[in-house]
Amino acid sequence: MKIRSIILLSVLGYSRAVAQQTDSADKQLLIGAGFGYMTIKDLSSSPLRYSGMGATVRLGYEYNQPKSVQRVLFSVQAGGLQNGIRKQSGVSAYKAQLAYSQYWVLNSRPRTSWALGGRADVWANARLFNTRENNPVSYDAGTAISIGTQANHSFSGRFSRLAASFQLSVPVVAYVIRPAYGVPYPEAFLQDGVFNHQDQGLTGPLVSSGRVRSTGDFFRLQTTTSLTYSFSNTKTIRLSYDWEYYSIPSNLPVSQGNQSLTVSFVKHIHERSK
Amino acid sequence: MIAKHLKYVVAGLAILLLSGCERLLIDSDKSSEPVENFDRLWQKVRDHYPYFKYKNLDWDSVYNQYRPSVNEGTSDAELYKVITAMLSELKDGHISVYTPDNYYAYNFKAGYAGNYDSALVRKFYLDKPSVQYVKSGGFTYAILDNNIGYIHYRTFNRDVDTIDAILQLFEREKVKGLIMDVRNNGGGQIGNVLSLAGRFTASQLNIGHTVFKKGPEPDNFTEPLRVYVNPEGATWTKPVVLLTNRACFSACSFFTEAMRQIPNVTTLGDMTGGGGAMPLEYELPNGWRYRVSTSAFYGFDGFNIEGGVPPDIRVDMNQEHAKQGRDDLIEQASQQIERK
């Protein structure tokens, strides 16, 4: 918990140092791809930490107004992970997230802005242990409402086409699905005292472990740092570094870290208003 | 110049630092310490294994027996030897250990006759001028010379839906009955068990219950959870003889227990291999993988299938008959169907 607090404070402090001007209305469509690195420890399957490289893609829409920012972003990340001991024990990890963010600008200066807001998102993380017969899949999924902050900065002089941005979010409440055994069978059995695998497949049991959690038993920190270069008023390219850490405590806890470096092409639907 | 850009340099370094933090937050329990690995395995079995009472085994006594053989200086080879000796006390075919150099699984077939020769079945029953056999998914099927349908299903890991077309073919050809052969079927997915059994009943059937081990004490179980077979796909109502042997294990034993509760089904052959649990696979801190049973299934009358499901009619293959191209189980199954 102490480490988490230090990280959170560091990130909040850092976010004030990054900046970009947001004094005009702007709609953007974004498509990007890049590389990712995942780190996982999932005690439903192993006490070992797995990590490895992968790929990521994203699609987004952003609406910037002088006093607010709205964003919808869908991202997928996948990778092949190893435990550093045995190559035969590989894991394929998948992450998908759809997030809607809304920020309100608090102080808009000539080249910097600082915004606070929130985010609602749905996500699913799956880990496929390649060699296992009855418990090959471990997963968690859910939806969360988070508070967040965003800082933007536009550079000047010969870097005037360059802008930097930093975003951070932390959930305050979430509905998290995480089967206690790592396989859904026990929840299926316990649902109404009947083994219903044949009738419902895994549809019912898949979600039956879900429950509402607050920050005490579900922690997640997501940050995005990006540099944007404008070719013109309608086309920009963006280099983003995303970092996420989350932890779901339970009798078989799971912790996961996701990093990704993404290059996105941004199409501005309307020209900036001066 | 440096001072002007210092805050950006600091910001960039902060990001790099943060990205490295996740390895602090997500520690690894990786350890090659022999005692820790032994204890982790022993505890996992204690918490999940459902048959201590059924097998009259005191797991604490087992710990006291084997733990003194492990210390800081124990080599991997010695640890493997101690661990597998300890696990052998469970006499459970679902228990296994995989190391980089070795693989352990309890031999539940030791001392039992094979009672199945796939080459014999193919040569003398399926691959003849008058009989054409077909492979479809996990099934091998044919209409035998005596106009009896024959299906061999080799693993419950293969989807069962293709059996509908086979049963419909047999129906069109007006076969007298069906020999369902699950000999040497080592098990697989429980969903396929219920789905396949669903082809042989016209109404919902309560075939028993299952419990999960949920704590360290030998009697820490979930409440009994009923298990049903529901009608599914093409329904087969003619006589069925199910052929079993000791190598019919795990999901195959589960299937045999379900089928023997269906009125038009007769089981014939040898006791199945048992394996009534659902095994899950984990890892030790040294990277060795292992499987441990986690649940127990009981038939409708409370019969525990862990030790094997006995046949309605006990038949062993006679080796002299086998040399002459006769599979006694198929022969007697045919007679059973002819009599009905």
TrEMBL record, chain A:
Q: Where is the signal peptide?
A: 1-19
UniProt keyword list: Signal
Name of this chain's protein: Outer membrane protein beta-barrel domain-containing protein
Which species? Spirosoma utsteinense
Q: What is the lineage of its organism?
A: Bacteria, Pseudomonadati, Bacteroidota, Cytophagia, Cytophagales
UniProtKB/TrEMBL annotation, chain B:
Task: Please give the SUPFAM superfamilies that the UniProt record associates with this protein.
Answer: ClpP/crotonase
Q: Which PROSITE patterns match?
A: PROKAR_LIPOPROTEIN (PS51257)
Residue span(s) of domain Tail specific protease:
113-316
In terms of InterPro entries, this protein maps to: ClpP/crotonase-like_dom_sf (IPR029045), Tail-specific_protease (IPR005151), Tricorn_C1 (IPR028204)
Q: Which UniProt keywords apply?
A: Hydrolase, Protease
User: PANTHER family, per this entry?
Assistant: CARBOXYL-TERMINAL-PROCESSING PEPTIDASE 3, CHLOROPLASTIC (PTHR32060:SF22), TAIL-SPECIFIC PROTEASE (PTHR32060)
Name listed for the protein in its UniProt record: C-terminal processing protease CtpA/Prc
Q: Which source organism does the UniProt entry give? A: Spirosoma utsteinense
Q: What is the lineage of its organism?
A: Bacteria, Pseudomonadati, Bacteroidota, Cytophagia, Cytophagales
